[in-house]
Design a protein that fits this description.
The protein is α+β, with helices and mostly antiparallel strands. It contains two helices and ten strands. The strands form two sheets. The chain has a six-stranded antiparallel beta sheet, covered by helices on one side. It has a four-stranded antiparallel beta sheet with strand order 7-5-4-8, with no helix packed on it. Helix 1 runs antiparallel to helix 2.
């Protein structure tokens, strides 16, 4: 199974970019999932292109700070509810299911989706900030079996 994730990057990235597991650029997780093989991954990327491109350009607003994870150990900035963001999330979850994939945390999907940007050290977004969905990506969580790095497999960008 391939461990994958769809995200909307808040910081600029490039297709094919590789980064350490501990050095994620700021992002909004859209759905984390597993798929069977490389063919399934390519099929998912092809099918995800339409909903990703439809969401590009959506302007989101950062809401209040919160804490997620075990005993609230992960500081995050919530992203205010937005119909376009929710539609993108729902479409991606549906694609994973159609391809017989497995969503990593199904209890945080669909109506329980809580979009947020995790803080990374001093890097963060702040309440009231506007975030534009200008880069949506499919990321491999363990390229070539290496769980210490991440690789951007596909990137859909807002034309500027």
């Amino acid at each position: 199974m391939r461990n994958l994730i769809m995200v909307a990057f808040v910081e600029p990235v490039a297709e094919g970019q590789v980064f350490l597991r501990t050095e994620w650029p700021l992002h909004i997780t859209l759905v984390r999932f597993d798929l069977g093989n490389d063919d399934d991954t390519a099929r998912f990327a092809a099918l995800a292109e339409v909903p990703a491109k439809q969401a590009l350009g959506t302007v989101l607003t950062v809401g209040a700070d919160d804490r997620f994870g075990y005993r609230g150990s992960v500081p995050v900035s919530l992203v205010e509810a937005d119909p376009a963001l929710q539609a993108l999330h729902d479409s991606l979850v549906q694609l994973v299911e159609e391809l017989s994939g497995r969503v990593a945390s199904p209890h945080h999907t669909r109506r329980h989706f809580r979009p947020h940007v995790s803080h990374h050290g001093e890097k963060r977004v702040n309440p009231g900030d506007a975030v534009v969905l200008d880069q949506i990506a499919l990321v491999d969580m363990a390229p070539d079996g290496d769980r210490t790095i991440r690789r951007i497999l596909a990137l859909w960008e807002l034309r500027k």
